[in-house]
């Protein structure tokens, strides 16, 4: 500090020290080091065991508006006062006579700086963590209120993207040494494709890169505020991805995907996880890099560039502009759906779809084209009908792992033609259908050409007791006449419907009913916690008014419905349970992210013991349920449906309860946000909760588990005798 006060005095006395920066530093300070960099020369100053950093304008003739160290100092001061992690600024001196140009001094911040974006020498997990921290830091910066910072007039406000294109075009032209057509074309394209909403404003860093971050054990410090201004925050989102597409192949382990980083960023800012104008911003970024490279090269020609390799920068201008143009051309007609197509299915893709589907699409009953596109890809890749061992060659145990993955994303089962209730219906037709039924119904279902529903539950009777069924089936020559009412018929009932009506003498039958038959009436869609589940076809109430179907539509034969139902429900329940495990994993992931980010009463949420215990209990429940489910899958594979019944009933109860508990904890940790549509948790909860009823309520399964357990105990007791 003594050093700083003497610097202060020197600046205030306005001593005329016509010395070069190196001269004065060598003369005044015990030790100094010139950091490399292309912009404002930066020096490490060491005095009395304390380290400082000095940044100054470069010497010589400079481009107007560039190298404004006073702005750097101002913004850093405001950020430091607001608690944002930047090195503490200590003094600013505008008098160019002191060391040749104006300068400022700040504290030296400790930590790691990675010059190489690939982050060599760190583990995959650490690499992921570092990039996630970078995305979080950026989101934190963009979330700060400008008024709180006292920086309302710092930039020019709305119209940032347009200004950026104009400014960098001007900067580039001022330093251009030859014609580069790609630069002119890119500038034109950017001007013609400005984002519609160019009035979104926050403090932007302007040069956000991994090597401008200092990774300190407790915080990430952001450096180099020379290009900071107020502008469109999303303009910096390409930076978290790091634009070099070769990066991932160089450094395969732990490098997060664009969508993951964008998802982290959006979650931190509490905004929907979609950036429709991303390609504009990436193209703009390349344009800026190219213009900066041109400026560095121009300074090297004038002899006032600060880096020794500045002359090499001239070579990179055209390639950078061409990559920018390439990105620009690819994005001309980029729609939400196309962006989504480039995403792999994941929980973040799911929330992305949510934002498109539920908030933006007026046609939510229609399958989005993106799902159809993904289906084509999945089918071409052989990832189709994976649930059916006879078709996929996978065991139930194999498929259980896949079902867990698809449970993370609400749309994934549809993409692979593995969605309920079609899966169960296909199983029925595969196991019990006649050759004709297989041709007419099973084959189109396997191809994904038609959809089905399963109609068992009735509004007027307690349907968990199948003997209550009232829907009737009467033979009339070579036809059957169906009369009754069903509800909670989930799925897209566009073509085939399974009716489970009560037949003579309390026996049940199952019959195929085309939904366009006269007398089939869709009464209304039901909602689950107020949501209509439109994208899955919803849950319909359907009336069958003297519906006449050919007798050949009966499956297996009259009175064989119960037999069929037993065969149908085993694997189907297993799939539901594994999907519930995947869903719970996603909910716990969200919980942990939130708990690590939010702070209440002086500490992060996860540091409150009750939250830490929820995390532990959720993990225990998930692992227990997964193992129980895998064990049931193994039993089904090796011992068949009948022997596996008890285990299947057990997981049916365990999975629904576990998923409800985990999602509920996650909602609680998210606070109000957990119930909003900004997160998928509310929808997840409605799915998890319905698992405790759909395919039979918990109580019915518990009764049958108890019955089977008592029988097993009896058998064991007899065996001991
Ligand atoms: C989202 C969702 C999707 C569904 N999809 C389908 C579908 O595609 N096709 C279809 O046919 N149905 C579907 N259902 C309906 C579901 O299978 C039934 O709601 C369920 O079987 C219970 O029948 P119920 O509603 O008639 O309840 P009821 O039979 O009236 O039972 C009500 C309650 O009584 C209690 N109870 C019942 N039996 C016992 C017992 N033995 N011991 C103790 N308590 C008992 C339980 O608490 C039970 O929850 C769906 C339901 C939901 C919520």
Automatic annotation (TrEMBL):
Keyword Isomerase: no
BP GO terms, sorted: fatty acid beta-oxidation using acyl-CoA dehydrogenase
Domain of life assignment: Eukaryota
Keywords: FAD, Fatty acid metabolism, Flavoprotein, Lipid metabolism, Membrane, Oxidoreductase, Peroxisome
Aminoglycoside phosphotransferase domain: residues covered: 36-235
Localization (cell): Mitochondrion membrane; Peroxisome
CDD domains: ACAD10_11_N-like (cd05154)
Domain Acyl-CoA oxidase/dehydrogenase middle, residue spans: 453-546
GO molecular function: acyl-CoA dehydrogenase activity; flavin adenine dinucleotide binding
InterPro entries documented for this protein: ACAD10_11_N (IPR041726), Acyl-CoA_dehydrogenase (IPR050741), Acyl-CoA_Oxase/DH_mid-dom (IPR006091), Acyl-CoA_Oxase/DH_mid-dom_sf (IPR046373), AcylCo_DH-like_C (IPR036250), AcylCo_DH/oxidase_C (IPR009075), AcylCoA_DH/ox_N (IPR013786), AcylCoA_DH/ox_N_sf (IPR037069)
Subunit structure: Homodimer.
Family named by the database record: Belongs to the acyl-CoA dehydrogenase family.
UniProt-recorded name of the protein: Acyl-CoA dehydrogenase family member 11
Originating species: Denticeps clupeoides
């Amino acid at each position: 500090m003594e050093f700083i006060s003497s610097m202060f005095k020197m600046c205030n006395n306005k001593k005329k020290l016509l010395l070069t920066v190196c001269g004065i530093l060598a003369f005044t300070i015990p030790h100094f080091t010139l950091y490399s960099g292309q912009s404002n020369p930066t020096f490490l100053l060491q005095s009395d065991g304390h380290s400082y950093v000095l940044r100054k304008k470069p010497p010589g003739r400079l481009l107007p508006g560039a190298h404004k160290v006073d702005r750097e100092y101002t913004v850093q001061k405001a950020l430091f006062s607001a608690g944002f992690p930047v090195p503490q600024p200590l003094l600013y001196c505008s008098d160019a006579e002191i060391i040749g140009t104006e300068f400022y001094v700040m504290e030296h911040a400790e930590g790691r700086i990675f010059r190489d974006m690939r982050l060599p020498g760190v583990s995959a997990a650490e690499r992921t963590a570092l990039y996630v921290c970078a995305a979080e830091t950026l989101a934190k910066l963009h979330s700060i209120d400008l008024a709180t910072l006292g920086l309302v007039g710092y930039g020019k406000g709305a119209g940032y993207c347009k200004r950026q294109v104009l400014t960098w075009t001007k900067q580039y032209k001022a330093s251009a040494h030859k014609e580069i057509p790609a630069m002119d074309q890119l500038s034109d394209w950017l001007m013609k494709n400005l984002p519609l909403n160019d009035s979104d404003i926050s403090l932007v860093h302007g040069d956000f890169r991994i090597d401008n971050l200092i990774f300190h054990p407790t915080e990430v410090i952001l450096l180099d505020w020379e290009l900071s201004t107020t502008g469109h925050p999303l303009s910096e989102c390409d930076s978290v991805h790091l634009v070099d597409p070769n990066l991932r192949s160089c450094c395969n382990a732990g490098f997060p995907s664009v969508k993951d980083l964008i998802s982290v960023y959006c979650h931190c800012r509490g905004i929907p996880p979609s950036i429709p104008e991303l390609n504009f911003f990436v193209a703009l970024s390349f344009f800026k890099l190219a213009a900066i490279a041109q400026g560095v090269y121009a300074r090297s020609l004038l002899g006032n560039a600060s880096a020794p390799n500045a002359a090499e920068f001239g070579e990179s201008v055209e390639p950078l502009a061409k990559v920018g143009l390439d990105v620009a051309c690819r994005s001309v007609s980029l729609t939400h759906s196309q962006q989504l197509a480039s995403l792999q299915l994941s929980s973040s893709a799911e929330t992305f779809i949510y934002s498109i589907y539920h908030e933006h699409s007026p046609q939510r009953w229609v399958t989005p084209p993106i799902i159809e596109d993904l289906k084509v890809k999945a089918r071409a890749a052989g990832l189709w009908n994976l649930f059916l061992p006879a078709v996929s060659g996978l065991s139930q145990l194999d498929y259980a792992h896949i079902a867990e993955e698809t449970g993370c994303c609400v749309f994934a089962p549809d993409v692979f033609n593995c969605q309920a209730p079609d899966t169960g219906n296909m199983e029925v037709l595969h196991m019990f259908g006649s050759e004709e039924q297989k041709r007419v119904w099973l084959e189109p279902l396997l191809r994904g050409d038609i959809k089905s529903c399963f109609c068992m539950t009735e509004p007027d009777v307690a349907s968990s007791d199948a003997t209550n069924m009232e829907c009737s089936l009467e033979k009339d020559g070579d036809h059957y006449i169906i009369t009754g009412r069903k509800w909670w018929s989930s799925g897209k009932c566009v073509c085939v419907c399974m009716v489970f009506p009560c037949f003579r003498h309390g026996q049940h039958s199952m019959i195929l009913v085309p939904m366009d038959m006269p007398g089939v009436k869709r009464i209304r869609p039901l909602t689950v916690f107020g949501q209509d589940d439109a994208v899955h076809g919803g849950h319909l109430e359907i009336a069958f008014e003297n519906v006449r179907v050919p007798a050949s539509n009966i499956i297996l034969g009259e009175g064989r419905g119960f037999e069929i139902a037993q065969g149908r429900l085993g694997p189907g329940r297993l799939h539901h349970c594994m999907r519930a495990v995947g869903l719970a994993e996603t909910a716990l992931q969200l919980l942990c992210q939130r708990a690590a980010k939010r702070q209440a009463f002086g500490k992060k949420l996860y540091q409150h013991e009750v939250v830490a215990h929820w995390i532990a209990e959720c993990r225990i429940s998930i692992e227990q349920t997964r193992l129980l489910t895998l064990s049931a899958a193994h039993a089904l594979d090796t011992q068949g449906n009948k022997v596996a019944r008890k285990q299947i009933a057990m997981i049916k109860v365990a999975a629904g309860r576990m998923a409800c508990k985990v999602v509920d904890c996650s909602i609680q940790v998210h606070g109000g946000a957990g119930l909003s549509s900004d997160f998928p948790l509310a929808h997840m909860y409605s799915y998890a909760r319905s698992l405790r009823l759909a395919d039979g309520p918990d109580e019915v399964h518990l009764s049958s588990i108890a019955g089977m357990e008592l029988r097993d105990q009896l058998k064991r007791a007899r065996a001991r005798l």
